[in-house]
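Internal ticket - ligand job 366, 5-amino-5-deoxy-1-O-phosphono-D-mannitol:
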Amino acid sequence: EKGGYEHFMLKEIFEQPRAIGDCMRGRLSANEGRLVLGGIREYANKLVNAERIIIVACGTSWHSGLVAEYFFEEFCRIPVEVEYASEFRYRNPVINEGDVVFAISQSGETADTLAAIELAKSKGAIIFGVCNVVGSSISRISHEGAYTHAGPEIGVASTKAFTAQLTVLNMIALRVAHQKGTITERRYHELLVELENIPAKVEKALKLDDQIKAISERFQNARNFIYLGRGYNFPVALEGALKLKEISYIHAEGYPAAEMKHGPIALIDEEMPVVFIATRDSSYDKVVSNIQEVKARKGKVIAVVTEGDALIPQMAEFVIEVPKTDEALMPMVSVIPLQLLSYHIAVMRGCNVDQPRNLAKSVTVE
Ligand code: M6R
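stdout (structure tokens):
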């Protein structure tokens, strides 16, 4: 059942090219300029005309929500608030009739997310569900939505569900932006083509496995890790840190790279591994300065960069090169080495990767 892999998590990491492909199948054809989401019909215009979007989720799904915030704001020019479901539901949030709420959940059973959308629905909000498990509670209570079709995810650490969520949310944002006219035809088509290329790029990123195993050996005994990124790669930093802490029990923090100077920089010494997600995008130069700040304090830099980067390899101890893609789609590629890094470190430390202590696959208690 593990298809020859030692753990479900590793199998699911390697399934991502297929999972992302399945998620796009029948929905996207760059050739024909077609993007059809069967589950978003009756309420599609509510979404197109929304004055704001609220996204509720927990854990890794919340990180997908953060990336989606950037999609919807950049492409659709709709303001987005991304909320931890558990905070949203208890603070008497402002929800108006006709507000649009997205609930993102792999399992579709997370108690806090379910309760948050029940609350929003009772106030007249329109709920779009992005779930992996077909027929799950969240998918049933939502007005409309789109499944991620990633297939069953058994490992407690979410991997393929994350990249499939990003795929779906990206398709939704592009579909809305196209109808609204907030994206140029050219960029729309470029992104459709790039989306279709993502499975092949993820496949290529998976070939880094041996290199990442070697890096994992070097850092398996670290007591702390910091993950830094900016823009679309900021949520990837959070996700990398979450993956590491939940399965290897190493304390890790994810931060937007520029926030480092407001506190966490005090943690940096020659013992501290700092993972930078530093691919070529609009914040590249800024991230390079942040790497210099860490180097000046003797931190050990592991950098995820775009293939062919000539500058960062002169600065970082370890460089992981991922294929180039549009910056909006980069999280689907740049997260792959971070998933592998946490996996290998956890295995080396003898941890129960598929069922980490104190955790359940779906958190059905609040
Ligand atoms: O099933 P959901 O996506 O609603 O689950 C949300 C979180 O419990 C989940 O993402 C959790 O953080 C994972 N263990 C992360 O790998």
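Auto-summary: The chain has a mean pLDDT of 96. DSSP finds 13 helices and twelve strands in the chain.
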